[in-house]
Amino acid sequence: MQVHVNRTPTLVEDASRFILDTARESIRAGGLFRLGLAGGNTPRSVYARIAEQAGDLPWERVQITFGDERCVPPHDKESNYRMASESLLRHITIPEGNIFRLRGEIEPEEAARLYEEQLATFAARLGESRYVHDLLLLGIGEDGHTASLFPGSLALDETIRSIVPATGPKPPPQRLTFTFPLINSARRVCFLTNATGKEEVIERVLAGDERYPSARVKPVGGMATWYIGEPLEAK
Question: Which residues contact 127 (CB under 8 A, 6 or more apart)?
């Protein structure tokens, strides 16, 4: 697997440019760009910059999914969908049907099943055994988790399902998350994170220490990119 690590004081600019370049490349190659969004604070600014810089990107050829979601209504302040909507979705001309939302407001098992069926139905039209993202955005927590795949979670060992309910250590604890089979089906993944407070865990993950869930992200497409925000004085 090729891993490209970018340590930068201009994470928002660099990451948004990379995402838009990948979108245009995917649309030229296959007519469609399938993008998985991450939650958290760092992606919010990236999404806002994408909305500003997208220019003539044909949003009708973009399909958006969510790597995880808290089990709350879509208008809740903890909702990843709400964050993406406020920073990106409201500001672009993407058809509503191109946004695949995880339904955090309904029973978790049912929400996971419905989302899996939605992705599987679309994948089957393209002859895929599992939905393939052109680019899946991920974050990393101080404990090395990614999406809502936390250390010690039963979801880490899922080998068949694409989306499962999961429990997080912080409120609201009930989550929905992509599993490694779906994550690693992506052509490319991109981690977006700030280094502050995470320096050691990032290094351990990059070294391949699979005690940290993020180290188990190994896309079959063979391409993982990191944008690590560092202060201007960082060497």
Answer: none
For residue range 177-200, what is the model confidence (pLDDT) as tens digits?
Answer: 999 999 999 999 999 999 999 999
Closest CA to 34 of 68, 55, 74, 64: 64
**What is the distance between the alpha carbons of residues 138 and 21, in angstroms, rounded to a whole number?**
18
Residue pointed to by tokens 């004081």? 9
For residues 192 and 7, give the distance between their C-alpha atoms in angstroms, rounded to a whole number: 11
Tell me the torsion sign for CA atoms 85, 121, 224, 171. positive
What are the pLDDT digits (tens) for 202-213?
A: 999 999 999 999
Beta strand 2-8 with 223-229 is parallel
Q: What is the largest CA-CA distance in the chain?
A: 50
What span, in angstroms and rounded, lies between the C-alpha atoms of 76 and 176? 15
Separation of alpha carbons 150 and 146, rounded Å? 7
pTM: 0.97
Q: In one letter, which amino acid is 174?
A: Q
SS3 assignment, position 167: strand
Q: Is the peptide bond before 9 cis (omega within 30 degrees of 0)?
A: no
**Spacing of C-alpha 50 from chain mean position:** 15
